[in-house]
């Protein structure tokens, strides 16, 4: 676990080179600078997110309108619309942001809008007692990564599967990838309503090559017919260790049975809708 807390930073003032009209627009609302878990490493050179931070404006009533938009909720685009509304640099598109950075952005939005205290009700996995807990979101940390093994500007990681000994490369996903995955899952659901293809479908998009072959048909055939469960688990565990992300877990203690363990923060309805019961 890293000792570095995720802090939000106010920018030090207007850039003198910024045109007066743009400065006037920007000064209408306070902004915060949010550090990205990826540090911008995997964006192309020159991309506005390659600097490793993103500037967000404070949440206003306009964004609360977005959160209440039932049509956006039905379409599943509400979080992207919310992020796009808050990004100061409009050249940054929400669909380009890696999922891991988007997790940090949503965490920052929650903190900026409603503060660091996140009250939640959690059922103890041992005794089923309902515990009322307040999580301090300011204590959320990034996972530890060996940055020296990563290449700036290259969205690619490698791993040798321990059982079959094949070398795979894989990448970080963004919203474009996630949209494709969700559409494919929707199509598969029409074919087999009882099947669950979430894991294999996601792996087909994450994996970019098998033993040097980037042929998508080869990758899909491998995932469907050759990828052993033990290799799949090893790959997913490896990804957790090498992909930068925020650690969305906290120390849980049950008031009834004294169970203590790390648990993931449940990001239910009350996370971005605190007046809504989760």
Summary, kept brief:
The protein is an alpha+beta fold and 278 residues long. 34% of the residues lie in helices and 18% in strands.
SSE arrangement:
Elements: H1 20-26, E1 31-35, E2 53-57, H2 61-67, H3 70-75, H4 78-86, H5 99-114, E3 117-123, E4 130-136, E5 141-142, E6 157-160, E7 167-170, H6 175-191, H7 198-206, E8 207-210, H8 216-225, H9 229-242, E9 246-247, E10 249-253, E11 260-264
Antiparallel strand pairs: 1-2, 3-4, 5-9, 6-7, 7-8, 10-11
Helix pairs in contact: 6-7
**Cα gyration radius (Å):** 21 Å
Succession of helices and strands: HEEHHHHEEEEEHHEHHEEE
Total number of domains:
2
Percent of sequence in beta strands? 15-25%
Oligomerization: single chain
Number of distinct helices: 9
The overall pLDDT average reads 88
Structural class: alpha+beta
> What helical percentage do the residues reach?
25-40%
Number of strands: 11
Strand order within the widest beta sheet: 6-7-8
Main sheet record: 3 strands, antiparallel
> Runs with pLDDT <50, length 5+?
12-27
User: Termini separation (Å)?
Assistant: 29 Å
Outline: globular
């Amino acid at each position: 676990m890293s000792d570095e807390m995720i802090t939000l930073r106010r920018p030090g003032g207007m850039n003198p080179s910024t045109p007066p009209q743009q400065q006037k627009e920007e000064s209408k609302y306070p902004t915060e600078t949010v550090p990205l878990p990826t540090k911008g490493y995997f964006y192309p050179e020159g991309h506005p997110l390659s600097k490793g931070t993103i500037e967000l404006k404070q949440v206003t009533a306009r964004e609360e309108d977005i959160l209440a938009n039932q049509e956006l909720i039905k379409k599943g685009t509400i979080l992207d619309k919310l992020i796009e509304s808050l990004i100061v640099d409009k050249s940054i598109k929400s669909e380009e942001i890696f999922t891991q950075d988007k997790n940090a952005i949503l965490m920052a939005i929650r903190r900026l809008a409603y503060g660091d205290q996140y009250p939640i009700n959690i059922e103890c996995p041992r005794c089923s007692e309902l515990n009322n807990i307040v999580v301090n979101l300011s204590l959320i940390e990034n996972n530890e990564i060996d940055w020296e093994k990563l290449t700036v500007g290259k969205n690619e990681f490698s791993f040798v599967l321990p059982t079959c000994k094949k070398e795979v490369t894989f990448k970080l996903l963004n919203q474009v990838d996630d949209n494709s995955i969700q559409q494919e899952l929707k199509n598969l659901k029409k074919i087999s309503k009882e099947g669950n293809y979430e894991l294999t479908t996601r792996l087909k998009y994450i994996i970019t090559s098998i033993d040097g072959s980037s042929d998508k048909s080869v990758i899909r055939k491998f995932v469907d017919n050759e990828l052993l469960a033990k290799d799949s688990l090893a790959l997913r565990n490896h990804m957790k260790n090498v992909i930068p992300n925020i650690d969305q877990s906290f120390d849980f203690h049950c008031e009834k049975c004294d169970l203590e363990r790390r648990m993931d923060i449940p990001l239910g309805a009350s996370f971005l809708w605190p007046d809504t019961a989760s």
